[in-house]
Specification:
mainly alpha; 20 helices; 2 strands; 1% strand
Length: 483
């Protein structure tokens, strides 16, 4: 009689709680963006007047624009550094260690961040909130790695992109709900309760971590892999990074250049829309900019099913970059409604996320998936951070109230185009190298089963590859990945 872990429903039960790991942290991450006016609002409003029923002066935490942006900068740079070590630790110590540690850091970081808001007007506010963001950044990016690693074990072959698409959709659902509900919640209950609400959602993520780790452990035991996995963990060394192939590095560069053209644009899209299309209010511009994430939320699962059915991940990577080129051209040099461009960008982003990230487990040794994911995330964050700095220099303004000339926005879009062209180059080279090495990324997967997908992977370790060559016609090794 088949064990529960061998049945399809068990995998999707694991996937559901695995998706919930990052729902709360993605919601919590962008709360400062939604409440930017409250973060930078005045400490007091002694001579405030009411205009159209609204207080002209916003009572807030009194942060300067530099201090506010530091909340995001410390998250990004912490993430870029920590995820490398985190990936190796997950490979060495296992998924269950990682899921507890990093979900706890998200809870601790978001709680410190919320606690800092109680020290408004004191010297303790900024250090507490920055420390909270630092710990939160250490946990959130690393939690995504262990989430992807769990997904890569339980879903292979024809279900891999679907599973990755669903985890992305749940994460983006957190971002979208934050966008729609946080402002209203803050108006009714205040900033402090709003920040604590974000921390509570991270606690729900920690509870999901307990459940998914239990399911993972029970499933490993039922599949008879628990002992083998611990043995494989002991073999993982930092030197294993040398096993990462040229295909992997080209894939990482493709991801970095594509995201360099997405996230820096989204960060400034609302202001760009208000500056170029003068009939948009701040709220309307924010809704239009948010259409990128809305499209991704709606399409992620269906796009994952499509890619699982047809394969062709390398071809999709090239196509995503090619179809993204017109977006920045339309934004820079035409007055086509911006919603057309943001929805279009959301569609290409959905296809890119469903084709690029699930390709990493296919081109690296299985025992180094965590390290590979960590390196890819780090390089992606470094690229985005550098791109944000370049965009800041191009736009050349220090205050959000100044209207930026159109020619500066056009230069920014040209920079986005340059990143997209680099993405096309690296993705074409990726397809050439992949074709020479057997065409794994572009294999048609519609006829492959769950277990049949195991052969479409890199070996667990270099030693396993050598041993499998020596075994000849012996029985194939059992399915395994470090957990």
């Amino acid at each position: 009689m088949a064990q529960p872990a061998e049945k399809g429903y068990y995998r999707f039960l694991v996937l559901f709680f695995n998706c919930m790991l990052t729902f709360g942290s993605y919601f919590c991450f962008d709360i400062p963006s939604v409440l930017q006016d409250q973060f930078q609002g005045n400490l007091t409003c002694p001579n405030a007047t009411v205009i159209n029923g609204t207080l002209a002066c916003v009572v807030g935490l009194g942060m300067t624009p530099q201090q506010y942006n530091l909340l995001y900068a410390i998250y990004a740079w912490t993430n870029a550094v920590v995820v490398i070590l985190a990936g190796f630790l997950i490979d060495k110590l296992g998924n269950r260690f990682g899921v507890f540690l990093f979900s706890f850091l998200c809870v601790l970081g978001s709680s410190l961040f919320a606690l800092g808001s109680h020290f408004r007007g004191t010297p303790y506010l900024l250090p507490l909130m920055l420390t909270g963001r630092l710990l939160f950044g250490s946990g959130n990016g690393s939690l995504t790695i262990v989430q992807n690693r769990i997904t890569a074990f339980w879903f292979k072959g024809k279900e891999l992109a679907l599973a990755f698409g669903l985890t992305l959709a749940f994460s983006r659902l957190g971002s979208v709900l934050n966008f729609f509900f946080t402002q209203r919640f803050e108006e009714n209950f205040g900033m402090q309760w709003t920040l604590w609400g974000g921390a509570l959602l991270c606690v729900l993520g920690f509870m999901s971590a307990i459940i998914v780790s239990t399911l993972d452990k029970v499933g490993m035991r039922q599949l008879g892999l628990d002992g083998a996995i611990r043995e494989e963990s002991r073999k993982v060394r930092i030197q294993d990074v040398k096993l990462l192939s040229l295909r992997y590095w080209l894939l990482v560069l493709t991801i970095m250049f594509f995201y360099n053209g997405i996230f820096p644009f989204i960060a400034d899209a609302s202001k760009f829309i208000q500056d170029k299309y003068t009939d948009y209010s701040q709220k309307e511009a924010a809704y239009v900019a948010g259409a990128v994430y809305d499209s991704s939320l709606v399409l992620s699962a269906s796009v994952g099913i499509l890619i699982d059915y047809v394969g062709l991940r390398g071809i999709f990577a090239v196509a995503c970059a090619l179809f993204t080129l017109p977006v920045f051209g339309l934004l820079a040099f035409t007055f086509v409604p911006p919603l057309v461009s943001t929805i279009w960008l959301g569609v290409t982003y959905s296809f890119a996320a469903a084709s690029m990230w699930p390709s990493i487990p296919l081109v690296v040794p299985q025992a180094t998936i965590g390290t590979a994911m960590g390196l890819a995330t780090s390089i992606q964050m470094i690229g985005i951070g550098i791109s944000n700095l370049v965009v800041g220099q191009i736009l050349g303004t220090k205050t959000s109230d100044t209207k930026i000339p159109l020619w500066r926005w056009q230069r920014m879009m040209i920079f986005m185009l340059a990143n997209t062209i680099c993405c096309i180059v690296t993705s074409v080279l990726l397809n050439i190298i992949d074709h020479r090495q057997g065409g794994m990324l572009n294999k048609m997967t519609k006829n492959s089963g769950q277990t049949g997908g195991d052969s479409d992977r890199e070996p667990l370790t270099q030693r396993e590859e050598e041993e499998s060559e020596d075994e000849g016609d012996e029985a194939p090794p059992s399915r395994s990945i470090n957990s």
